[in-house]
Amino acid sequence: MEDATSSNPQSLGFTDKLKSWLSWSWTYICAVWFAMVLTMIYVLRSPLKLQDTLTSASVFLNTLTPKFYVALTGTSSLISGLILIFEWWYFRKYGTSFIEQVSVSHLRPLLGGVESSSTTGLFSSVNGEAEPRPSVSECKVWRNPLNLFRGAEYSRYTWVTGKEPLTYYDMNLSAQDHQTFFTGDTQQIKAEDTVMQKAWRERNPQARIRAAYQAIEMNHECAAAYVLLAEEEATTITEAERLFKQALRSGKREQRVQDPVTSLRPLTLNINLLVYIKRRLAMCARKLGRIKEAVKMMRDLMKEFPLLGMLNIHENLLEALLELQAYADVQAVLAKYDDISLPKSATICYTSALLKARAVSEKFSPEAASRRGLSTAEMNAVEAIHRAVEFNPHVPKYLLEMKSLILPPEHILKRGDSEAVAYAFFHLQHWKRAEGALNLLHCTWEGTFHEVSVYPKKELPFFILFTAGLCSFTAMLAMLTHQFPELMGVFVKAFFSTLFTPLGFFADKMESFMPSSFWHQLTRI
User: Fold this and answer.
1) 34, 67, 162, 410: which has the highest count of C-beta atoms within 10 A?
2) Is the pLDDT of residue 296 over 50?
3) pLDDT the model gives residue 299
4) If we measure between CA atoms, which residue out of 380, 323, 372, 322 comes closest to residue 351?
5) Which helix (H) or strand (E) holds 10?
6) Transmembrane residues, as ranges (predicted)?
7) Whole-angstrom Cα distance, residue 47 to residue 364?
8) Which long-range contacts (CB under 8 A, 24 or more apart) does 431-439 make?
9) Please, which residues have CB within 8 angstroms of residue 311's CB and are 6 or more apart in sequence?
10) What is the pTM of this model?
11) In terms of Cα–Cα distance, which of 137, 220, 124 is closest to 181?
12) 392-424 pLDDT, tens digit each
């Protein structure tokens, strides 16, 4: 077993080298193939009667009236316009190009492209070793560390308005997260795990709840099923906390069960599931007013699993410490996580700005500051606000209540409007508690960043620009052909004669380079 394991990296390395070599040589192979095809066409021009075919085609094209070319270019413009409209609609709805998405999904594997790494390795392994993680710069959509409970909080909005508070895209991302993180070891997957995998994919909440109960009937210690019930069925935070505690107890009891095969090694609880349960229990304690208990649970969780920085548990801790007004502890957490090598967030940047603004905001006056200038502490506060607004300029409008708050989503786009909503939803009260902090934010933001363009600004995909240019170009050709048919005919003939000049030059060089007898023998073959 050990020999097979030790030889596995070598085989994987050879496979990766082979794939990279094939991917590198693909372009050159295509170029050689294209050159061979052109050469064969030239060699076989006499048997294939290409010259006669081209002559007859030229005669046929010369007999066509300008109306045909107007119809041809007009139809091309219409088709490219329809493609442009569809691409624009798809981009506005899904934020990406349909043609680009299909090309990446289906053509990249054929051309030897590398698939994006799975998010399974976000968490540390059971024995404490760090598993591979995706590059931080590539991660745009993040799990909201302060996301609400569906049954106990999001459902209230549905009961009052009859509308869904979450988008299908957001819920689909959550289903993928749960399905990936809570599956556990695929070698030890059981019947209830299969049921729960299907449960996370169900669109109907009642179907998800029924599947959870079905998993519990198969195994009364199915922790993932209790997690789903706590998230989906519990209508109060107290009930959700009870179900999460039941999930934790079930997981620990299952962990003590001996392996039925070896009877030596105990089955290990899925580390991702354990961290999720403990984190949600801490959030329940925070929402129920037991803030010191919540802070202790979060600190213990961060100490037990120090490699979980990607989960942003420190953002939950910062919010709880701000509620306790333990500003020294908040500064200590910021000193650890507000580092240039770590991924930033609106919580990190704006909490740092809040602490600096709180120190000077109570006595701050814009008129007095303009007369005497800014002190060192005031300058530090202003620079901290500048830095925060530069990171996410959407936040001030929500903190200053210039835009209405909505329920935060389960996933956020870093530096986007969704992150601003999530931050302001939980931290607006902390800014209001610091007297004058919002006034300092308003003066600094309005004076410096009011005209800054919002970030992130979506760039138009290449295919939208391409189809727009193609539609405009063919429409212009149709109009010019209709207005000036003779002049356009002369222009087209000159264009094609210029285009085929290099081919004629290449053919003449081939004739002079190779003896005529050789070409004769090839054509006979």
Assistant:
1) 410
2) yes
3) 92
4) 322
5) helix 2-43
6) 21-44, 68-91, 460-481, 487-507
7) 91
8) 431/354, 431/399, 433/325, 434/354, 434/357, 434/358, 434/361, 435/361, 435/362, 436/357, 436/361, 436/362, 436/363, 436/364, 437/354, 437/357, 437/358, 437/361, 438/399, 438/400, 439/361, 439/364
9) 122, 123, 143, 145, 275, 279
10) 0.60
11) 124
12) 889 999 999 998 889 999 999 888 899 999 999
Structure tokens at 209: 């709840």
Sort 225 into a burial class: Cβ within 10 Å, 0-12 / 13-18 / 19+.
buried
Pair of tokens at residue 281: 């229990």
How far apart are alpha carbons 314 and 351 in whole angstroms? Answer: 12
Q: Which two tokens stand for residue 450?
A: 């009011």
Contacts 24+ apart (CB under 8 A), 9-14: none
pLDDT digits (tens, 9 = 90+) for 483-508: 887 787 777 777 777 876 776 676 66
pLDDT at 96: 74
For residue 456, whether the previous peptide bond is cis, meaning omega lies within 30 degrees of 0, is yes
Q: Which amino acid is it at 433?
A: R
Indicate the range of 21-30, 139-148, 367-376, 514-523 predicted with least confidence.
514-523
